[in-house]
Every structure is written in C-alpha cells, then in structure tokens.
Design brief:
The chain has 111 residues and is an all-beta fold. The chain is built from no helices and 11 strands. Strands 2, 4, 5, 6, 9, 10 and 11 form a 7-stranded mixed beta sheet that branches. The model has no long low-confidence stretch (mean pLDDT 97).
Length: 111
C-alpha cells in the first residue's frame, strides 16, 4: 500500500520539544525528496523543511535553528525534531513525498 503515516504530535508547553515521524510505504524512499509542511487554522499550508535523497536540508526562516529534519532510509522514515517550540508553531503537520501526502499530525503549543 502506498502511504505516508505521521505520528508524534501532541500538546506541549512553549519552549518544549516534540519529534515527529513519518513512515513511508510503497515508494522508493531512498530517492524521494521528503518534506514536512504545516497548516495552521485559517492559514495556507506552508513548507517547513526538506531533506533530499543525499541528505541536504532546507528550512523555512521561521524554524531555522529550532527544527531539524532527518531521514533513516533503512526504516523508510523521515523525522522532524522540533525544539524551542512557540505557540505560533501550532498546526497540523504533514509529510510529503512525490505527490503523496500523509493524514497529518496535530501539534499544539500552549503559552
């Protein structure tokens, strides 16, 4: 089955950390450019972080220095380590590869 499944969201206080995971199946994961997006209520979906097949990474300015994207090709998994979380990070976080999207995992940061 071709799918992306996210996990790891939850409720955390400002300044805290969360680690999101996205497990891919049915795709050639090792060649995929993996991306994390987020969508806050009433806002457009925005690109948060990208990791290429070679491990190069890129981040939105709003999360640079706080978030880290990584991948484990042996486990077909991409991670998003989120530190120093802020209330404005509250959103549904989605994993993306090719034209495929996960169902999302909700992150809520309380002040």
């Amino acid at each position: 089955q071709v799918q992306l499944v996210e996990s790891g969201g939850g409720l955390v206080q400002a300044g805290g950390s969360l680690r999101l995971s996205c497990v891919a199946s049915g795709i050639i994961f090792r060649i995929a450019i993996m991306k994390w997006y987020r969508q806050a209520p009433g806002k457009q979906r925005e690109l948060v972080a990208t990791v290429t097949s070679g491990g190069d990474t890129n981040y939105a300015d709003s999360v640079k220095g706080r978030f880290t994207i990584s991948r484990d090709n042996a486990k077909n998994t991409v991670f998003l380590q989120m530190n120093s979380l802020k209330p404005e990070d509250t959103a549904a976080y989605y994993c993306n590869a090719f034209q495929l999207w996960g169902q999302g995992t909700l992150v809520t940061v309380s002040s």
